[in-house]
Structure prediction request, 348 residues.
Amino acid sequence: MESELRKFQEFALQAISSAQSSADLEHVRVQYLGRKGQMSELMKGLKDVTSEQRKVIGQVANEVKKKVEAAFSEREKTLEVGERKAREDEEWIDISAPGTASAQGHLTLVTQAIEEIAEIFSQIGFVQVRHPEIDWDWYSFESLNMPKTHPARDEWETFFIADGDKVQTGEKGKVVLTPHSSNGQVREMERGRMPIRAININKCYRRQSTVRHSPMFHQFEGWLIGENVNITHMKGVFDYFVKQFFGPDRETRLRPYHFRFTEPSFEIDISAEKGKEDSKLYKDGWLELGGAGMMHPNVLRAGGLDPEKYTGIAFGWGLERTMMMKSGMNIDDIRLLYKNDMRFLEQF
Ligand code: PHE
Prediction:
């Protein structure tokens, strides 16, 4: 029994010194010193020995138990100190350390352009207005001198709002995603405040997707309606805008064109940025921005105005294109603007 006690001591000390955490050590304690542990088992053997032997063995047992217990306490302290230190290291915060600044975003390129354009026009008295982007056929086409079956409508590649196959209709005809900002013309006249000097910037939708067309895009459309408004005012507004927005080296070109809602009508082109004439954005060094003209008498009438008394100019341009023409932009596919690729967007 004495040798068993010695063996017990050897194993217990070994187990204690190899325990790597307080939890390990607790297992060791239960196994060796616990109520049902090896020590208690061994001590049960005492009843089978003579009282002479019991005295000796009792002493040895005491000695063994003390040694094991001492080793246990020692190990326990060491482990606890280590564990406390690890916890402290982990939980330590330097409350005086500077914080990590969270990433700061910025307005998208398109919003920046909207703000810039609105600001430029506000300098010459154009107020920014908003009109619906989902609208009736009446405002999008019919009131703009485009009767229902007129082939000119085809140019607007229009999306209709439908429930299944059934195109939705309302008070003033079919419901469309506005294919141009011109739907605001008659709506603005209906407000009944004359003269009108407004800039309407909104989202437009057409079934087209190419480097120069995105199915969702923006137009900004200006209206100047009053007495004695004429083409020279139109020219003056363009010259002013182009100088402000693009700088002195970009030119505009007016090409005679046809729109149902203006007469005469023009298309406005802007010259390419110097050195970028070959970019796939341009056609022979020019980019078409949009249309313009003197408002058609029928449109003025649809808005409740007397064409004998009032005349007006209207011009509608693609906002993204206008922005892409800006010096240094170097964006050669309009669809990049809406891909939400942060690597692209973060550059602006
Ligand atoms: N709405 C026309 C378009 O989308 C542009 C335009 C606006 C033309 C105003 C003339 C006057 O192409």
